[in-house]
Structure formats: C-alpha cells, structure tokens
Design brief:
Strand content: under 5%
Order of helices and strands: HHHHHHHH
Structural class: mainly alpha
Radius of gyration: 25 Å
Helix content: over 70%
Largest sheet: none
Distance between the termini: 16 Å
Length: 189
C-alpha cells in the first residue's frame, strides 16, 4: 500500500499543482518518508541513504534525524507542501483532499507496521514452547537408548531432532520482528 500511495501522491502533486518547485519538494519528502519508515522500523534515527542519494539538503536531513518520529516529520513536511499549494490557489478543494488522504494513508500504514513491531509473542507461549522443546530433547535420547537397537545412534538422532526443534523456535522469534536487517526479513532496502 505504501508503494501505491507514494506513487499516487507524487502523481497528484505533479498533475494538480502548477508550482513545479513545490511539486519537486513534495516528491523529495515522499521519498524521504519511505526511507524514514525503514529506519524507524529498525529502531534507528540516522538516514545515511538520504544523505548519500542527495534527495534532501544536508539541513533537511539534519532536521529529520533530530525529529522524535521520523515518518511523522516527513508527513508534516508533506502536509506543509499541500498547505502552501492550497494557499497559493494551485489546488482546488478536491485535489487538496485527495493529497491529504494520501498523507493520512501514510499515517495509517506506519501505525500498522508499528503495531506489528511492538506486539511481542506472549511470554507464556514462549515459555510453554521452550519447556516442551527441552522436555523432548532430554527425553528422546533416554527413549532411544531404552529401545536397545539404537544405542550410539541415539546421539546423532537427538542432535538432528534438537536442531529441528530449536530451529522452529528461532523462526518464531524471527517472525516477531519482520523489519530487521537480515537476509530473511522483509526486503525494505
């Protein structure tokens, strides 16, 4: 949805607003919003990609990085662009509303991502899962040795089984934060 809204707001600004300078500024803040969301969801406040790409001026990047909430700062700057376009009479009421709805959509999207990020797996579930895993890992070799036909084979069987169970538990932790910098996280870059 974020991809669609960013395309839409840039298209609307360039289509509706007669001020090319203001449209270019809104485009820059829309690009900055996407980078700001990525950094915010990774618990970072620096935006080195914006500095390297030259999307914003150094002063604008400094102001962005000093903000308490990076995406909100970008949305505020976009709102200021929309307001200036409306005050200059380059937008009518319908166009103003359409642009503002896109900024509101940005707010909804970052809110949904934050909800995913800040909702942990319940501790009782994690504790129960880890207890079952440990019980299985401890009981399996005892069971296999008791069968008398596996004897030393119990060791590699237990190691493989332990790897599978602990791997599943590790996958559960990875799913808890899909925004981190990792090769099996969401491709935010």
């Amino acid at each position: 949805m974020m991809v669609n809204r960013t395309r839409d707001i840039v298209r609307q600004f360039h289509g509706y607003c007669d001020d090319a300078r203001l449209s270019a500024e809104a485009t820059r803040w829309t690009i900055a919003y996407v980078y700001a969301c990525k950094q915010h969801l990774r618990w970072k406040s620096a935006c080195p990609n914006l500095r390297q790409a030259g999307v914003l001026s150094r002063a604008d990047v400094d102001r962005l990085e000093a903000a308490d909430h990076l995406p909100n700062f970008c949305m505020d700057m976009l709102t200021q662009c929309i307001k200036r376009a409306r005050e200059a009479n380059t937008l009518d009421g319908f166009e103003f509303r359409a642009l503002d709805e896109n900024v509101q959509s940005f707010e909804d999207q970052i809110g949904k991502c934050e909800r995913i990020l800040k909702t942990p797996v319940p501790f009782s579930f994690v504790l129960h899962l880890r207890s079952i895993i440990m019980l299985n890992i401890v009981a399996l070799p005892l069971y296999l040795i008791g069968l008398k036909k596996y004897e030393f084979g119990a060791i590699p069987i237990t190691l493989i089984y332990s790897y599978v169970l602990t791997g599943l538990e590790d996958l559960g932790q990875m799913i808890e934060n899909p925004f981190r910098e990792n090769f099996h996280a969401l491709p935010l870059d």
